[in-house]
Amino acid sequence: MVRNGYGGWLVDVLTMAEGGALRFRPRCSTGTNKQGDTNKKRGLSSFNSQPPILIIMVSFKLSSMALLLALLTGIAQATTITVDAGGLCTLADATTSSNTDAATGGCAIGSGADTIILEKDVTLAATLPEITSTVTLEGGGHFISGNGLVLVLKIANSGNLTLNNTTIKDGKGGIDNSGAIILNNSTISGNSGGSCEAGISNHGTATLNNSTISGNGTAGLCMSAGYEGLGSSSIGGIFNSGTITLKNSIVSGNLGHEIASDNGIITADSWNVFGHNNESNENAFYGFTPGGKDVTATSDGTKPTALANIFSPLAANGGATLTYALVAGSPAIDVDMTCSTNLTTDQRGYVRPVGSGCDAGAVEYNPSSTDSDSDGIADVSDNCPLIANPDQSDTDKDNIGDACDDDVDGDGVVNGQDNCPIVSNLDQQDKDKDGIGDTCDPHDDRVNMSPIYKLLLLN
Q: How many CB atoms neighbour CB 448 within 10 A?
């Protein structure tokens, strides 16, 4: 493109035929001549003194538009790669396609910061390629299993992974990160295979939002190179030698250290739940101290809590795969009144928050849909939500089921001290001193038996 003799510009005009071939028309001029006449040859208007951008006169298929724009701008357009239920595109091929921006197997060609979508659960028979590019993995509640054979996910120094709504399980290690990773609404469970294999091993930068890390680790001492300082324990939940941030997450019920940090940086103090009351802080943590806003459920923590009173075992709680559902009264319920992670659904796709605040972990507690004791009665209607009692028996009609009522007959005397625990007898009278209250003694004091107990005895 050059200036003409009239102070205007000569413009290269690019055309594209239907078949996609690029052609250049001869240059034409625009501008104002010395006599003040405006040159509008070929229908082109004046550009005054500013050089115009390249004019493209096109007649081509719409499918060519994206390609043309990419050629002209040099900007890679991100691709969505679907790991389909039919098996045309595997997760291994999808990872390679994203890493190399080249067609692999039956997967779409990767380009830039890609998104991989899982339409099904994935069980690995061989190690996946390392993630070396920027990619978002949308699990849709599905799982990726190492099948007890391989590490599930490995992120290289150049890799940048965002993992959403996914369960990583049953690997020889769950996730090994040397690059950058963000976990949202995800569960890491059942990963073991060696005393130094953790649910998550982080050597780069990691952020966990509303995720649950439980059931990982193997008994034994971790004595591998680089882990010598961890003391006499294995690593279960998280090992960190990089930088990791934990928000609204649960790390509890792992074998060995829940969290171990060796010359790494951990930022917590953000509505997490750590450990359980069958372990001390010394057992649960190495090189890490929970923050003031976190719930430390260890035996010497801020709120000692049994594991069974934090969440129920891995089970079908709605959604595409097994999850850890919070139980009634869990310290993880409504722990964050500001919902600081800004996640509006949980791993299953269910809405957050349900109560007055957002819960910690991958699954939001909902009493109308959760059955903590698996007795077939939702917590919201169960008179004893943590102990199975399908008959819902409630002798004293206090809305606390007999199975979990410490005073079944409601007479003010706790069951262990009551000489007639199923029939109210505040006076605890026992004329024959046999330890059975007269109200329900079937032997010597039959004459003093209550009509209710007589009816129970006869039936």
A: 16
Following DSSP, what letter does each residue of 327-339 receive, concatenated? -TT-TTTT-BTT-
Q: Which residues contact 10 (CB under 8 A, 6 or more apart)?
A: 1, 2, 3, 4, 27, 28, 29
Q: How far is the C-alpha of 275 from the C-alpha of 166, rounded, in Å?
A: 22
Q: How many DSSP H helices and E strands does the chain contain? A: 4, 26
What is the spatial distance between Cα 115 and Cα 189, in angstroms, rounded to a whole number?
A: 24
Q: What share of the chain is helix, strand, coil (3-state, %, to 5)?
A: 10, 25, 65
Cα 185 to the chain's mean position, in Å? 2
Residue 451 has pLDDT above 80, yes or no: no
Give the chain's end-to-end CA distance (angstroms, integer): 106
CA distance 46 to 6: 11
Cross-strand bridge partners of residue 6: none
Residue from 365, 391, 395, 394 nearest 380 by CA: 365
| CB-neighbour burial class of residue 271 (10 A; exposed 0-12, middle 13-18, buried 19+) | buried
For residue range 369-412, what is the model confidence (pLDDT) as tens digits? 667 677 777 776 788 877 888 888 888 888 888 888 888 888 88
Question: Which tokens go with 290?
Answer: 């929970």
Nearest CA to 150 among 209, 203, 91?
A: 91
Contacts of 298 (CB under 8 A, 6+ apart): 274, 275, 276, 277, 279, 280, 281, 283, 284, 304
**358 strand-pairing partners:** 336
pLDDT tier at 237, thresholds 50, 70, 90? very high
